[in-house]
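Hi Q.,

Before the meeting this afternoon, I wanted you to have the adenosine-5'-diphosphate prediction in hand. No need to reply - just skim if you have a minute. The sequence and ligand are here:
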Amino acid sequence: MSLSKIKHIVLVLSGKGGVGKSSVTTQLALSLSLAGHSVGVLDVDLTGPSIPRMFGIEDAKVTQAPGGWLPITVHDADQTTGIGSLRVMSLGFLLPRRGDAVVWRGPKKTAMVRQFLSDVFWDELDFLLIDTPPGTSDEHISLAETLLQKARQDQLAGAVVVTTPQAVATADVRKELNFCTKTGIKVIGVIENMSGFICPNCSECTNIFMSGGGEVMANDFGVRFLGRVPIDPQFLVLIETGETPRYPEGTEVNGQDISTPAQEPDADGTVKKTALLVYKYQDCSLASIFKSMTAEVISAAQQTSSG
Ligand code: ADP
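Predicted structure with the ligand bound:
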């Protein structure tokens, strides 16, 4: 059974689309890999799977083995740099036209989600992140039920709920938290994405929408607030073009100067360190934010597995 060799399973949920759920999943995966963990990402967002685009593997072809699919390798573990392996399986790989939303009806979607959970050969993984569709639809309920049936209690670390300052004002994210309570899925914490803006020109981080609502809401529900993630256009540049993020001198995020690159290009001309997304991501302002949020996810997962 495909989930048996996975240590920790984390769901990434959001009340509505476009709040950055897939980018949060992507960055949690990169951060976990940078922390030395082996990671799998399962993208079951049928509303428009965007995980393959995030990892630059849209054209990858999945191989079918007897009884299931083999995930795509984004990178292998590297003992010299200490990164863990990263593999991805997305519904997007199975769609005839990439980027299409799935138009199947409920039962077919539900069956697909179930099959996806059991028919991907993950091998050994420290973490499996599941990028779910937005909302609390039938697929979610089915996903939650299937996970509760197929995964061991000690594997199910819980859910990370993503919201934005504006979405907090809507009922969607509260619904999501209620969904977790009803289905018995533990909430690891809430992330407020698109909270502020890192200007690429003027070294300022500006609050364009009122931020802070995510924290208030997390407190209301008695769940942990994992932190705020500003909009960083350099993150988009990294994803879209593969260019290493750069910031004007003096740019500070959370009191840290981020304008000095963490990763200098290798002097000996090798491109190994600079070629992979995971290394380039270290130069993104959001990497340090995700590092501390990831540490909280790791500790929540370890607590669950140790009972
Ligand atoms: P969702 O999965 O919730 O539909 P996405 O993760 O696809 O949302 O995000 C929507 C768009 O916003 C994507 O192009 C993504 O790269 C971008 N985005 C999300 N969060 C950020 C951020 N903090 N900084 C910059 N761009 C972001």
